[in-house]
Amino acid sequence: MGKFLRFARRVFVSTSLLLSIATMMLWVRSCSTGDSFDRYRENVAGPGTYHDTRGVFSTRGTIGVGYLRMLPPHVQDWPADEGWKRRAMPAQPVAWPHRWALLGFGYWNAALPTGPGGGGMRMTGVKIPHWFVAWVFMLPPAGWARRAWLARRARRRLASQLCVACGYDVRESTERCPECGTPVPSPDGKGTLLSLLPPGEG
Ligand SMILES: [Zn+2]
Q1: How far apart are the CA of 148 and the centre of ligand 1, in A?
Q2: How far, in Å, from the CA of 188 to the mean position of ligand 1?
Q3: Distance from the CA of 144 to the center of ligand 1, in angstroms?
Q4: Of 17, 70, 12, 66, the residue nearest 41 (C-alpha)
Q5: Angle at CA 70, nearest 5°, toward 65 and 72?
């Protein structure tokens, strides 16, 4: 593997690890604090028309992305358009009706009333749990750690003249491990060990 590829993989694995840790920290934070990054717009299609908001949020163990449209006549104040903005508030469970929800995954697409005289609202969105996002980001570093551990074990076995595949003592064997049939490497360490080591870890 070339130097650049090795470097790129290292960056990818470290970034993934950091993102996983950041997601876990956000998960802990989401138990008490809800975070969102969103934008509110008023009278989107002209005076007296609908308001809307869209954004991403993190609250009570789930990360969501959603859109909400508030239909006229409006009976509630609507936040002014301040562009895309990060907001923090006390964590609330995602309380609106879901079409489907399981283990922190879910989606909603619902029309809800907005009180007497109000035109109602329409909301749609999806959510996924923090644990799932953290788990996905943990896959590359876990794979790297496993390959590094296998390579280390193979080197240790080779140094002690044990079969690199199963650990059986092959000091008396010349060609193949009597236990699993893996070819015994030559004393210079070439051959089977290299085939077991992941690229770039040798
Ligand atoms: Zn063996």
Answers
A1: 20
A2: 18
A3: 24
A4: 70
A5: 165
Cβ-Cβ contacts under 8 Å for 85 (sequence gap 6 or more): 37, 38, 39
Residues 19, 12: Cα–Cα separation, whole Å: 11
Compute the distance from residue 168 Cα to the ligand 1 centre, in Å. Answer: 5
Q: Check whether the bond before 73 is cis (ω within 30° of 0).
A: yes
Q: pLDDT averaged over consecutive 10-residue blocks of the chain (202 residues)?
A: 91 98 98 97 95 97 97 92 96 90 94 92 97 98 96 92 92 88 73 52 42
- The tokens describing 98, both together, are 């879901």
Global confidence as pTM? 0.78
Q: How far is the CA of 202 from the centre of ligand 1 (A)?
A: 20
